[in-house]
Each structure stands twice: as C-alpha cells, then as structure tokens.
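HUMAN: Mind sharing a backbone?

ASSISTANT:
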Amino acid sequence: MIFCSVLLAIVPALSAPAVAATIIVGPSNCSAAAVTSAIASAADRDTIQLTCTGTATWDTTVTVPSTKGLTLTAGGSNTPKASATFPLTISSSADPVLEINCENNRGLNRVTGFKFRNTIPSNNGAVFVKGRGVGTTGLGCFRIDNNYFDTIQNPNANLEGTITIWSSTGVMTGLIDNNTLHDSSYTDGYVLSIQEPWKFGGTQWANAGQNAWTRPFVFGSSDFIFIEDNLVENNSRYARHQIEAIQGGKYVARYNVFDVNKDNAGVQTESVEAHGFCFCQSIGHGTRGGEIYGNTFKGTQHANTIYLRGGTWLVYDNVWLNAPSGDFIQLKEYRASSSCGQCDNTCPSDPRWANCVNNANAYPMSEQIAGTYVWNNLYLGINRVPAVNSSGVQNLYIQSNRDYSVSPTKPEALSSYTPYPYPHPLRNTGSPPRAPQNPTLN
C-alpha cells in the first residue's frame, strides 16, 4: 500500500513516446518506508520525486531493484557549487543508505539533488551501485549527480567508499558528476571506489576482475566509469584515497577538484590511485587502467597525488596549486618492491604471477604498469614527470620509454586518440522532472 503522502501522476516522457510516471513522495513523509513503497509501485523509467524539506532519517537501506531503472530526485542542485541548494537532507544508519541495482536493457538509474549527512559508520557508505548494464543507449546504466555528501563515515576500507561502483555480474558503465564529497572519513577509507570484479572463480577471489583484462581496452571509449566535475574535499577528516580502484576497475577522472588538507598522524592522502595485482587470492586482479586529465589538486596534504600500482593509463593536463609532500605522480610495482612481502601466495590462475622478485627475470609481470603516457602535468608552469618508487628492484620493471612515456605535449603515438565527449552525453539526458499534472495535496 502506498503511504498517504505518496502521490502518483502520469507525465509524458521527454525522451520516449511511451508515458512515464512521476511518483511524488512528501511533503510530510520522506521516510525510507515511503520511498521504498514508491519504488515498489514504479515501473521502469519512472521518477521518484521527494518533496520534503528539512531532514529525513532512514533507518533501513532504500533499494532500487534490477527490474527497473528509476530517477530518484530530492530537488536539490549542486550546479554551480558556490550556490548549491538542497531542500532535503538524508541522515541514515543504514548499510548502505541507497543501493542501486543495474541490469541490461533497463532505464537509467539516476540519483540527483540529495544531501546525505552524518551517516553512522557503515561498510558501504552512502550510495552503492552494483550489477551490470550500459543503458538502453549504451551511454551507461547510472548517473549520480548534483548531490552533497557531508561527513560520511566508513568504519574501514573494505574495498568500499562513500560512493561504490561494483560491477558484480557483468560489464557496467556510468557517470558520477557535479557532486560535492565533503570530509568523507576513516583511517584507511576511500571516497570513490571503482571495481569490476564480476569474473569470479578459482581460489576465493583469484579471478575477480579478470574479464576487464581479457576484453578490449580502448582509450577514448565509453567503456569506463566517468568521474567528472566533482569537488572532493577533506578539510577536517582523513580519507586515504579520494578515488581508488581495484579488481579490473576502469575509470576516467576529468575536471575534478581535489582539496585535501587533513592527514592522519602523518599518514597522508594519495588522491587518485589504482591498486595493483598483489593480493590475488584475497582480492583479485589489479586495476585495468584509465584516463586522468584536467583535474586540479589543491590543499597541503597530498602524499603521492596520483599513485598508480598497475594498469595502463593516460595522465595529462592536470594542475597542482600546491606541491605534494611526496611525488606528483608515482608508479609502483608491489611485487618488485621492498613491501612485496604483503603480497599473498602464488596465484594459480596466472603463470606469470610472482610473489616477490629480486631481479628482472619475471619481466613483464602480469598487470604491471605498461602502455602509459604522461604529458603536460603542471606545477608552477613546469611539467611534472612520474617517479618510480625507489624501493626494491622496481626500476627493472617500470622504465621510461618502455613501460611509460613522458612528454611536454600529446605524443605522436596517440595521434588518433580523442577523449570521450565532454560533457558526458548522459548529462544531456534525464532532464529534471517536471511538476506532476493535477497533483492532490496532502
């Protein structure tokens, strides 16, 4: 049964000949139960519009099932961020607060205009997207935009963050844009976590993320999680990584601002990072790769600002307003470093797996840094080049002009490369919901 504060009105869809519905939740009751009831009554491509103001407390997870793609909107806007407005704040102890399940051939799942604040510690943070799908147009199955995540607390890293993207059953793409992520925290926690672990098998997690390493990898394509035009700031709380990836994760981080001014007893932040192939039997494969460009790094507490431990990358046109305490860009291979002992036992699924090496006999190691290009990354107008971690024998495995290339401008080898269209095409779809026709007031 729909709560008395949930109103149904039929509105012509803006982008399809079929009729989609806008289901109104509020203005007096925007509880998790009320929103869940509205979701249950909705059909694929419908909109759930929350019209409450003030604060709503959700004590249970609100879940969008894989049988439908929905837009959830709370009426706020984070564009421009200097004059953001959020009529409704969601405070929750749920784990996670909001779960989105993508599936092939479903409508776009969109979360927009919410403010999430002071979540009681939970492993999955605020928004957890899982499943598979690239949307009916191939542009992506989800969009998380124009939200404000305020002081979300994660009790431990556990591979999850304030926003977690976890393609658990197949290929999944989507967009995270125009959000503010403010003071997400924990000792070793993440803010944005990108993972593609759906190829399971072997011993525990030994094959998690394998599919990303076997299908084509093409720069400039739509086959990534796109993170663009967000503000990620940690001014009074510490988080280890603002963006982290693992298990075959692929992302494009572009035109974001990272403002980090908080460390943890000297343990500083690596803002944009990628885990490598080191924990095979407990976690799975390493990050596949991606593109990092046009970002601005502010604040005083970056250690290694861009920290890549495996995969294939383009890193260019980034700007630093403050020098990091470590490296602007650091490349690392755990298995050839002095910290290789933390790698687990031999991975049975990969004959080139090596737990620790002290010579170059295993080159190239599976999933190490390779095919990476770096150009025009500026601090004080000077192009900053990557540093290879100096411990162990990593210099035998990661070498300039072999595994990565540095230049002041775009290299000739990438003459055919064109970035994926910006703004992301999903920003031109899913127009803000219109007011329902002839609503009944409560």
